[in-house]
Structures are given as C-alpha cells and as structure tokens.
Amino acid sequence: MADAQTLKQHLWDKMSDGPFVMVGLTGNGQHSEPLTVQLDKDQVDRLYFFIGRDNRLAAGGQAMVQFVSKGQDFFACLSGRAQIDQDPAMIDKLWSKPVEAWFPGGKADPNLALLRFDIDDAELWETDMSLAGKLKMLFGGTIRSDQAGSHAQVSSTAV
User: Fold this and answer.
1) Boundaries of each General stress protein FMN-binding split barrel domain copy (predicted)?
2) Residue 6 burial (10 A CB sphere; 0-12, 13-18, 19+)
C-alpha cells in the first residue's frame, strides 16, 4: 500500500498525463462539467482553469473537482473554493496553444477568465491491485485489503 505522500505525488503525475477533470459548484443543484486543469508546480493545493466569463463556474464558491486517470487506476475527489483570478502573470504562465484555440481574442479576449480552485481537502484512491487481486476480481474471488490498492484522506495535496 502506498502512503499518503506517494498518493499525492501520483495525483500530480496522473493529472499531468491526463488533465481532464469534472468541476462543479456545490449546493447549487447544477451538474459538474468537464474542464482541462492547468497545473502550476510552484503552487501546491491550487488548480487553474481557463473558462469563459459566461460559464456558470465564474460565479465561484464552494466546489468539487473529480478526477479519474487515463488508465483508470487513480481517482481523486477534491473539495475547495473556486474564484476568478485575473492575475496577468498567472495567465501568461499557464497560456498555451490549446487554450488559445478556445479564446480567439488571445489573452485579451473579453470572455477570458482564469478560474482558481484552492484545495481544502482531498480523498485519493489508487488501484495498485496485485496480479492475484486482479485474477480474483476476474473470477469472483474475495479480494483482501492488501490486494486492493491505496486510499488516503488528506488536508493538503502538497508533496
């Protein structure tokens, strides 16, 4: 079983490899929506997203982010607060050609907004299931906890 420190490192590695997440404001009855996370390794416990000012997430507030890795072997549920952050230096740092494709006016596009998500806490799961555990799952056997994977509840995603 991996420890919490290892799981936190795996979260950032997995998000770098497949940066698609579901983001939603909590308590407003609206569904989450898919977004591409922008990671800044210099800022722990924080995610960024380029969105339109007309996006329902632009209102900000308490939010949840759900993540499933490309290999479906790592899962995360992140709780925190979303708010617009129009720091020009951060926009420059995170800007890329894929982002530019969504905002034809570039960094000066009047609809461009940078959504900052400050992580309060997280729950992480990694299915580092052993070969024996995988075989038991295929054939309906009982899987012991040491064959199932790793899980951690953390108050910080800082490594």
Assistant:
1) 9-130
2) middle
Mean pLDDT of 126-138: 54
CATH number of domain containing 128: 2.30.110.10
Sole residue written with tokens 């900000």: 60
For residue 159, being part of any structural domain is answered with no
What's the mean pLDDT in 88-105? 94
Q: Return the pLDDT at 73.
A: 84
**pLDDT tier, 45 (very low <50, low <70, confident <90, very high otherwise):** confident
φ and ψ at residue 109, rounded to 5 degrees: -55, 125
Q: Where are the beta strands (DSSP E) in 29-156?
A: 33-36, 46-52, 61-68, 74-84, 112-126, 150-154
CA-CA distance, 105 to 113, in Å (whole number)?
12
Model pTM score? 0.80
The mean per-residue pLDDT over the stretch 58-64 comes to 96
Q: Look at the alpha carbons of 61, 116, 99, 111 in this order and tell me if their dihedral is positive or negative.
A: positive
DSSP, collapsed to helix, strand or coil, labels residue 139 as helix
Q: How many domains does the chain have?
A: 1
| β-bridge pairing 46-52 and 61-68 | unpaired
